[in-house]
Predict the 3D structure of the following.
Amino acid sequence: MAAYDDRDGWIWMDGKLVPWREANVHVLTHALHYASSVFEGERCYNGKIFKGVEHSMRLRKSAELLDMEIPYSVQEIEAAKYEMLKANGWTDAYVRAIAFRGAGDEMGVSAVGNPVRLVIAGWEWGAYYGDAKMKGAKLDISKWRRPDPATIPSAAKAAGLYMICTMSKHAAQAKGCSDALMMDYRGYVAEATGANIFFVKDGEVHTPLPDCFLNGITRQTVIGLLKEKGLTVHERHIMPTELADFEQCWLTGTAAEVTPVGEIGGFKFEVGAIARDIAETYERHVRA
């Protein structure tokens, strides 16, 4: 694939479709300097964006948490997504909506007068973790921790919150891993760099309580599917020492979908029946 700034196609920007290579912003865009940016990652299956409205609602909520108001309604954002998909001829694709403070009259920490811009792009994207869906992903354990929600708006899907995620994933890849598991500021198991995490022990499912990180839409969907199957799901604080006792593990996220995990920092997990079944169930669910 060509670099992301050098492709054919169309990107929706501030109300109109723009040729891919012309979808640019000025170097003094506020978000580039101060991370005043929120985004969503979504997948379109068979021409329908999975839970698109929920994603658009969260985008607007994330912006509010960063003291920004997106000048488009949920309905207008939804229409723009499908306009972009149609222009590119895609029925199966990843969709990226991003809202940010643009260039304007102010270029300091405060930029309340600068315009809030909205861009919607997309691309065709296969399995986020490659063949890990079959054999299980290998995760490192990050030295960086998810911050105290008193220091960041942890309920927002904000670009600035991913800085330590990028650093953690780079370190993991240097060790031959697909991703990294992060603890939270208290030392509890939190999430991977861009996906929530689940574990299985004695036929019951355990997943970290999202009280300082994003409660993913895919996470919520998977919990609902597990409960429909009659499985017990514990949402709770999990200590790192418990990793040795869990039998199965998987990640969830729009990009990750449901990806089994085979190893975390030396702890081994079986790509077992529950992990395989929920991955298959989710795949059927999003394409239903």
